[in-house]
Amino acid sequence: SDEELHARIVEAKAKMGSSLLILGHFYQRDEIVEHADYVGDSFQLAKNATEHADAQHIVFCGVHFMAETADILSLPEQSVTLPNLSAGCSMADMANIDQVEDCWSQLMEACGKGTDDKGRVPIIPITYMNSSAALKAFCGRHGGIVCTSSNARAVLAWAFERGQRVLFFPDQHLGRNTGMQMGIPLERMQLWNPFRPMGGSQAMTYAKAKLILWRGFCSVHQRFTVEQIEKARAAYPGVKVIVHPECSMEVVQAADGTGSTAYIVKEIEQAKPGSVIAVGTEINLVNRLAAQYPDKTVFCLDPVVCPCSTMYRIHPAYLAWALESIIEGDIVNRITVDSDTAAEARIALERMLEVHP
Ligand code: 13P
Ligand code: SF4
User: Fold this and answer.
1) Which amino acids bring their CB within 6 angstroms of ligand 2?
2) Mean pLDDT score, 128-155
3) Residue 201: which pLDDT band, with cuts at 50, 70 and 90?
4) Which CATH number, 3.40.50.10800, 3.40.800.20, 3.30.565.10, 1.10.10.10, labels domain 2-88+311-337?
5) From the CB of residue 13, how many other CB atoms can be counted at a distance below 10 Å?
6) Closest residue (by CA) to atom 7 of ligand 2?
């Protein structure tokens, strides 16, 4: 029963004390969030993983790329567990290393290899945190960097100081929305389709581009529409609309604000009692915020609900099982990134932590 699972988790946590660190993403269900030592956005959780050398075991209640990042940034003697290995991210799966390597060689061919008069290299690769360790390692190898939704603008600015162009993967929307904020015209942004090789006539188009966007997207955030925002504004005059930057450019432009999950949480926390806030992000987070602030009206823009089905796979039964396996000394679902990949990926992650400490 739910009560039994709750009791098993509480008991396991008590047995492990400070040797255990449970990290939970904001999209996790309430029955998981209540057990987490830290709940945060993907940037905050990555930092949390670097700050607890005393915790021998890190249990990551989130998705696969987050647990990989925790393993890369934590000490080698710390274990990282993802309670359910099938908790992936469909967006992260939209770019694999072979496709990125292939894209890179085609772009290098199209854009030339020399630096310009400001000493900038032809292209800097940026990978969104929502990507495999292999793609982070690619960025480490090629002078690139990692970003999250909370620092994409600062990271892009860093990249444009060093490169004439940026190849941004896998989320086209975060890339495009951030490019727009920085004043890059749409004509200087070019979409990269990994399933269609570049035709000879396209080489010039890519060479002229400033921002090359991988054709990935989040199926949860892609559901939000401008019509939903219009409906919310008609139903609640004065409503504040805030959305995650994984939403389309049209949705972000129609909203009043955009930012990471931590930004969304903060906006709602700081809103005056009586405020009405419509949110474009995952439903578990929105519902939790609505319950947490009964003096404010908080609702999700998508009336049909939009859970992240993979985040939801971290069920308390998996958490209890994972914790007990640590106590029994036979850890299940441990996430280990091989040391060569981890070393290169760490370079790209540390660049990000330098830009956005
Ligand atoms: P945040 O970094 O804003 O938490 O976003 C992670 C994510 O997967 C959003 O879909
Ligand atoms: Fe991936 Fe979208 Fe889920 Fe975030 S909400 S973990 S981007 S599928």
Assistant:
1) 63, 89-91, 130, 218, 220, 246, 282, 308, 310-311
2) 98
3) confident
4) 3.40.50.10800
5) 16
6) 218
